[in-house]
Specification:
CATH class of the largest domain: Mainly Alpha
Number of helices: 4
Structural class: mainly alpha
Number of domains: 2
CATH architecture of the largest domain: Orthogonal Bundle
Organism: Acidocella aminolytica 101 = DSM 11237
Keywords: Coiled coil
Protein name: Transposase IS3/IS911
GO molecular function: DNA binding; transposase activity
Number of strands: 0
InterPro entries: Homeodomain-like_sf, Transposase_8, WH-like_DNA-bd_sf
CATH topology of the largest domain: Arc Repressor Mutant, subunit A
């Protein structure tokens, strides 16, 4: 299992919800995050990252939402594949052009 998938989406959602629900019980959001992280068994920084992303998804914080990030990754992958295809076509075109020149000179 990869590091990114160590915790289930349900665990992540529950932990973030706990931070939001118990935020008023602690002196700061970080204190809440540390408390909840200890209970679910992840690092405080990991939980902080989940909370920050949830805040972006809810429009409470600037940045890309989860769906925007997924779309960006898909578009970047598509651009990479298209560049590879263009490079293959460019090389094939040069190869066949050279073969055509060689054929003309052999006549």
């Amino acid at each position: 299992m990869s590091k990114a998938a160590k915790y289930s989406p349900e665990t992540r959602e529950r932990a973030v919800r706990m931070v939001f629900e118990h935020q008023n019980d602690h002196a700061s959001q970080w204190a809440t995050i540390e408390s909840v992280a200890a209970k679910i068994g992840c690092t405080a920084q990991t939980l902080c990252n989940w909370v920050r992303q949830a805040e972006r998804d809810q429009g409470l914080r600037e940045g890309l939402t989860t769906s925007e990030r997924e779309k960006m990754k898909a578009l970047e992958r598509e651009v990479r594949e298209l560049r590879q295809a263009n490079e293959i076509l460019r090389k094939a075109s040069a190869y066949f052009a050279q073969a055509e020149l060689d054929r003309r000179f052999k006549r």
